[in-house]
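Protein modeling request. Please complete all fields; requests missing the sequence field cannot be processed.
Requester role: graduate student
Desired output: 3D structure, token encoding
Chains: 1
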Amino acid sequence: MNIKKEIFYISNLISLSRFLLLAFTIYFLSVYNYPLTCLFIGFIWISDLLDGYFARSRNEISELGKIIDPLADKISIIVIILILLFQKIIPLWFVIITVSRDAVIIAGGLYLNTKKNTVLQSNWMGKMAVFTIGLTLFLSIFSTGAKKGQFGEYFSYHNEITELLLVLMLFLSIVMILLSLLSYIKRFKEIIKT
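Delivered output (194 residues):
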């Protein structure tokens, strides 16, 4: 892995920028500014789409990128989810399931890297799980801000729609978490056998 060269790939720079975006997200979330928190979560999501697009379109898929991209996803989700738990915005059971999934994937990835010198790249199922988790967190923050009137009268008055969407997304996230974990375990076993 040529880290000095790969770190300057546009896709990897975008992945690294997610840590800066996360810092702003943490700040605005900690001061209960939910509109700006939602905005920066949107930026994080866009950067996640862009790094993959540039990696493929510029043929810059790299070993470093395979590490940075999912790591940025996992750190962003875990940090935001823990703050939301502390603020009593999301339930503990959702946090346990989400963090457990990431812990299993990180442990498996470290094992493969050590024993097989392989980096297991994120797949479509994993990306969908991250997307649904991210959307669930976004809706949790949006719903909380709407209740406090931070998104204007309309959303404050019609917040039941957001809350219904949030309940649906919580359960969809759990389904996607379990499917992505099963997909990861299957790939893990295939690599171990080789």
